[in-house]
Amino acid sequence: MGEEELTGRTKPPYFKKIKELVFGGGRINMSNWLDILTEVYGDRASIYLEKELDYPFFKGKTITYRAAMEFVNRIGNALLKQGIGEGDRVVLITSNRVELVFACFAVMKIGAIAVPLNFMFRAPEIKYIVENCGARCVIVDWDVFVLNVKDASFAPSVEKWLIVTRREAPEGFLSLRKLMSEAGGGLAPKEFIPEKIVAILYTSGTTGFPKGALLTNEAFSRTVRREARLAAVLPTSRAQLGVFTLPVAHIMGYIMTISFFAFALPWYFISRFTPEKVLKTIEKHRGTTFVGVPTMYAVLAACGPEKYDLSSIKVWGAAGDAMPVERIRHFKRFGGVHLWKLRIPPLYFEGYGQVETVGITCLKTAWHWRVPKPGSVGRVVRALHHKIVDQNGKTVRRGEVGVLAVKGPRVCRGYWANEEANREAFLDGEWFLTGDLVRADRRGRLYFVDREKDMIKCGGYSIFSKEVEEELKNHPAVAEVGVIGIPDEMKGQIPVAVVSLKPGKKAAEDELVQWGRENIAGYKAPRHVRIVKDMPLGMTFKVDKKELRRLYTEEFREILAGKRRV
Fold first, then answer.
1. Fewer beta carbons below 10 Å: N end or C end of the chain?
2. Contacts of 156 (CB under 8 A, 6+ apart)
């Protein structure tokens, strides 16, 4: 890759060729999809990297479709030679790197089941998941090995430990690099079975152990087929480039990698998010698409995006949490299309979903000068049926708040070895209860109210933590907020808040408590506020309320009981 421009940004293939391969009666699936796309796009660039990859069979920063397929095939053949195959669970936990993407693709291609994990998981969580899913093989890299695994006795049930490193493999581990170098570059895909489980994605609840959502071949394949069809109708030009910095082990990041491949949109992979690097990359390489989480946009906004040339941007995208309307307006000022003296703002889209729906439940878009309705998460995607139900499973009236329930081919087939969770999560055995409290307007748009598990019951009142958090964010010094309920014998729960401040801003805890009383209904206002320097964030930079409860519940209990000075 040159200093001034990215190489390999070539013209798209002919429409006729894509049409023949993509519109062939659902031919594409998670076993053969990369083979088919390689047949179409061949030596067209698919990924650009910050740092050069150096393998005996590949060296460079630009990965074409053909090179990507060779990576996948070599990993698949390496696993097969180690006796890993049909139905075997393979846990993949590495830092945010492109090899993790290829390893997931390879596991699915050989008929095994991919179990990608958040590299932020602690050792006990990793050990539990590895043993819970009965993984025969685990793939790690050096960072995860040093921090969490350390030796092959970490989980005795694992038969094969593979490590991504250029160093000498530790005792008990096999070098994936060496195995790939010895493996062949050709690999025939497995037969397509729509209902076959191809991935288990673990989600962490507020209590208890993580649950493994069972995701099918068809659930993922629908994303591939949709994007490939779009590429046939709206082929990408040589100038288009996505800028990607999401965690690929998270469902959002993984689905975006699949979408970029299928849509034939080459992407520049930034393994670790830093705002300056993202903005400089868009400016230098004329990025046309950026997809991130709202927290990323907040950090980008604080970094002064107006100081950079972002005129090449045609699409801003977000998911993982609701984006404030004002921030959408702010970023739609950058980029767009110029027709003579008329500037058409860039497209903005936002996805809302869960692991259990392969990341997408609702979608909303903002064309031209329009912005979405505040609080709306859009409309449910076509592949899903939905209804909003009360605590008894009865459908609520339009406009009333209830739990969103969905069913369809994108919905998970339950949780791995967890019948209790399956009974709780599925209504009548088929409707998946998302756990999200929503309401619908007369046009079918859904509005996210809160997570059911985060709703606080105080003295008979229902307090939606999300609503209180948004109000507290209106304070000029507040950056991030997490509102949680602390158990109380008299009132059930008491609302409290943990906040972090914007750089250079100052505020006192008592001041924020008073501000809440003046701007939020009395029963909703947090009784106490704790200011912290570093807010615990999850993989997609959302406030980790499970961690907040773990860290601060006892402290707040003591305060509420009068054992400590407020």
1. C
2. none
CB 359 within 8 A of CB 222: no
**Which DSSP string do the residues of 98-116 spell out, in sequence order?**
HHHHHHHHHHHHTT-EEEE
pLDDT digits (tens, 9 = 90+) for 370-379: 777 888 899 9
Phi, psi of 212 (to 5 degrees): -100, 105
- For 537, which DSSP code? B
Please give the backbone phi and psi of residue 379, each rounded to the nearest 5 degrees, phi first.
-110, 150
SS3 298: helix
| Strand runs labelled E in 226-295 | 242-244, 267-269, 289-292
- Burial category of 208 from C-beta neighbours within 10 Å (exposed 0-12, middle 13-18, buried 19 and up): exposed
- Quick one: 411 exposed, middle or buried, by C-beta within 10 A (0-12, 13-18, 19+)? buried
Q: Of 71, 68, 73, 64, give the one whose Cα is nearest residue 6.
A: 64
Quick check: helix, strand or coil at residue 483? strand
Beta strands, E only, 160-264: 160-164, 174-175, 197-203, 211-216, 242-244
210 Cβ contact list (under 8 Å, min separation 6)? 125, 128, 129, 132, 202, 203, 204
Per-residue pLDDT reduced to its tens digit, 433-461: 999 999 999 999 999 888 888 888 887 77
- Confidence (pLDDT) at 229: 77
Cα–Cα dist 365/371, whole Å: 8
349 Cβ partners below 8 Å, 6+ apart?
315, 316, 317, 318, 363, 364, 365, 366
Q: Which of 166, 172, 178 is nearest to 150 (CA)?
A: 172
Element (H, E) at 429: none
- Tell me if 426 sits within 8 A of 413, measured CB to CB: no
* pLDDT value of residue 207: 47
Q: Supply the angle between the helices 33-41 and 251-263 in degrees, to the nearest 10.
A: 40
- The tokens of 6 are what? 């990215």
DSSP at 385: E
- Whole-number percent of the chain with pLDDT over 70: 93
Token pair for 366: 């903002």
CA 358, CA 102: separation in Å to the nearest integer?
18
Cα separations in angstroms, 314 against 57, 239, 242, 288, 291: 36, 11, 10, 5, 11
Single-letter amino acid, residue 108: M
pLDDT of 519 > 60? The answer is yes
Nearby residues of 273 by Cβ (< 8 Å), 6 or more positions away: 245, 292, 296, 541
Instruction: Tell me phi and psi for residue 536, to 5 degrees.
Output: -65, 125
Torsion of CA 417, 420, 421, 424, to 10 degrees: 150
Beta bridge partners of 199: 114, 215
Q: Pairing state of beta strands 160-164 and 492-501?
A: unpaired
86 exposure class (CB count in 10 Å sphere: 0-12, 13-18, 19+): exposed
Instruction: Please state, in angstroms and rounded to a whole number, the distance separating the CA atoms of residues 79 and 56.
Output: 18
411, β-bridge pairs: none
Backbone φ/ψ region at 279: left (φ over 0), alpha (ψ -120 to 50), beta? alpha
CA 218 distance to own-chain centroid: 19
| Residues 6 or more apart whose Cβ sits within 8 Å of residue 463 | 455, 456, 457, 485, 495, 523, 524
Amino acid at 208: G
